[in-house]
Amino acid sequence: MLRIAVQSKGRLYEDTMFLFSEIGIKLGSAKRTLLIPASNFPIEVLFLRDDDIPQSVADGIADVGIVGENEFVERAVEANIEKRLGFSKCRLSLAIPKEEEYTGLQWFEGKKIATSYSHILNTFFAQKGIHAHTHLITGSVEIAPSIGLSDAIFDIVSSGSTLVSNHLKEVEVIMKSEAVLIGTPGLSADKQIILDELMFRIDAVQTAEG
Ligand code: PRP
Ligand code: ZN
Ligand code: MG
To answer: Where is the ATP phosphoribosyltransferase catalytic domain (predicted)?
Structure first.
């Protein structure tokens, strides 16, 4: 039995459930249960917060996981990307209040930026030689500038509507992201066989969709 960690709610949850249905994996509908075995395939699904998926795979609590690449890169844990999945696409961008005049990356010098992705942001600023303060918050990042908590934000952008409704404008795309299948290092041979079958089925639907 291969244990796969999946986000318990949100877009990635919906897209992952759709993938399972496309590749013919049926889950028992034990709602509100953390761990659900498939009825027709040797996997069990462990539902977690996306923040916790990279670490759970690195620790071997789950053998594999489906998570946003952004979340995986941010956690900087020991796990392998087994496969890029091509769904739940988004970008990680810097955004500033829309009335501000943007003068290039130098605009961020000495500024305070609210984000849930401080590792990715600090790495980027270090590479560019920009000195800015990152303020780590775990949610509602987009309201930080309007309440005086920060000058700018660094967050996930998908449709862009969250930025628009918070009077922000996207000024730099730092990273593109999509869902990835990650695996724990040193999977046993039995589990590797199941993972290979899983990836074979995913390849088949990806090829069909071209
Ligand atoms: C993300 C992000 C924004 C929103 C952007 O949150 O934090 O709130 O999506 O999407 P948009 O550009 O289509 O408006 P999400 O709801 O994915 O999850 P969260 O609970 O981690 O904020
Ligand atoms: Zn400071
Ligand atoms: Mg959000």
So the answer is: 49-203
**Residue 208: which residues within 8 A CB-CB, separation 6 or more?**
none
Q: Could you give the 3-state DSSP secondary structure of residue 171?
A: strand
Q: What is the DSSP string of 65-129?
A: EEEEHHHHHHHT-S-EEEEE---S-EEEEEEEETTSPP-SGGGGTT-EEEES-HHHHHHHHHHHT
Residue 176 Cα to ligand 3 middle (Å): 17
131 CA to middle of ligand 2, Å?
10
pLDDT tens readout for residues 104-158: 999 999 999 999 999 999 999 999 999 999 999 999 999 999 999 999 999 999 9
Q: Which ligand is nearest to the CA of 150?
A: 2
Ligand nearest to the CA of 151: 2
158 lines ligand 1 (CB under 6 A): yes
Reported ipTM: 0.90
- The list of the chain residues with pLDDT below 50 reads none
* Predicted local confidence at residue 73, as pLDDT: 97
Whether residue 159 has its Cβ less than 6 Å from ligand 1: yes
Tokens (6 digits) for 181 = 């299948």
Nearest Cα residue to atom 19 of ligand 1: 139
- The alpha carbon of 118 is separated from its chain's Cα centroid by a whole number of angstroms, namely 14
Ligand 2 centre to CA of 115 (Å) is 14
